[in-house]
Design a protein that fits this description.
By secondary structure, the protein is mainly alpha-helical. The protein contains 10 helices and 2 strands. It folds into 2 domains: 118 residues, no CATH class; 67 residues. Helix content is 48%, strand content 5%.
């Protein structure tokens, strides 16, 4: 999970920040076509590949990811229906190493953190998650997690170490939400996750925060 940015945080002037976001959904700027990948996976079997891209990982299915659904959720929905095609379904966002290498090249070119593209949050998504609509277009929907849901996810993550910012982020969100006791903080976490799923590090981390 990425660091929660404080509104008052001062950013280094040496770091270039993007001022434009381009959603290239129609393959206008980048020649993106799943057939480049799947032709290799199907060993040149064009009919089988076309059947897969028409009936399983179809344009209608992919459009839902363009609209904002995560690839993790989209692939999971298909694997439940077509378990025999799981390998090819998962290949839609594989190999991840290639994606991350490309993200690193973008980061170097734009002077941003190399971790700007991060799918680690998928491990903490809750089916009780709460969101606000940020942008809604005919072809794209963007949602932002509510602060209490962000707090719950950060508490579940609670990675310890100088390279992580989870404790700093939890403290910021507690202040933002005016949470002043351990019990209230735990109640927020339990809105989104059953108590038996909450790791011990979450209990220890919150107790330590409220003890100081």
């Amino acid at each position: 999970m990425t660091k929660v940015q404080d509104k008052e945080e001062v950013r280094s002037p040496e770091v270039r920040r993007p001022n434009t976001v381009v959603f290239d959904l129609g393959g206008v700027l980048i020649d993106w076509n799943p057939r480049y990948l799947y032709r290799k996976l199907f060993n040149g079997d064009e009919p089988a590949m076309e059947d897969f891209l028409t009936n399983i990982c179809s344009p209608a299915w992919n459009k839902q990811q363009d609209a904002g659904r995560s690839f993790a959720e989209g692939c999971a929905s298909l694997r439940a229906i077509y378990p025999e095609a799981s390998h090819h379904i998962d290949a839609w966002f594989e190999p991840k190493e290639k994606v991350r290498e490309a993200a690193c090249r973008v980061a170097q070119a734009e002077g941003v953190d190399s971790r700007w593209l991060n799918d680690g949050v998928k491990g903490f998504l809750s089916d009780r998650g709460t969101f606000n609509a940020y942008l809604s277009l005919s072809h794209l929907h963007i949602f932002t997690a509510l602060p209490d849901y962000l707090l719950a996810m950060k508490c579940m993550s609670f990675r310890i170490g100088h390279e992580y910012t989870d404790e700093e982020d939890v403290r910021f969100l507690l202040r933002y939400l005016n949470v002043e006791t351990f019990d209230i903080a735990l109640e927020i976490v339990e809105r989104y996750y059953p108590r038996e799923m909450i790791p011990q590090k979450t209990f220890h981390g919150l107790r330590e925060i409220f003890a100081t």
